[in-house]
Amino acid sequence: MGVDIYDMHKDPQTGFEVKLTGYHPSEKILDFSWSPAGDVFAICEKDGLGSGAKLIWSFYMIVVNEN
After folding, report:
1. Domain containing 53: what range?
2. Are 30 and 42 in contact (CB under 8 A)?
């Protein structure tokens, strides 16, 4: 059994897209939140140093693969 992480986004040309991203590094993650649906989560990452650092929210979908 494994867990796959996918990146979801809306492309103006092709519409809704889901792409496999694999494992995500944890050292930059500041916050983590599950959706009420349970299969979607969001992470907040800090990009940069000091007061000029950006906070970036990314949304992911979890799919359990039983292969």
Report:
1. 2-65
2. no
Considering only CA atoms, which of 23, 25, 28 is closest in space to residue 6? 23
pLDDT (tens digit per residue) in 9-26: 777 888 888 888 776 666
- Do 62 and 3 contact (CB within 8 A), yes or no? yes
Helix (H) or strand (E) run with residue 56 in it: strand 54-65
**For residue 24, what are the CA distances in angstroms to 13, 30, 47?**
27, 13, 15
pTM reported for the whole predicted model: 0.47
The residue count of the chain comes to: 67
Based on the structure, what is the number of domains in the chain?
Answer: 1
**Quick count: other Cβ atoms within 10 Å of Cβ 15?**
7
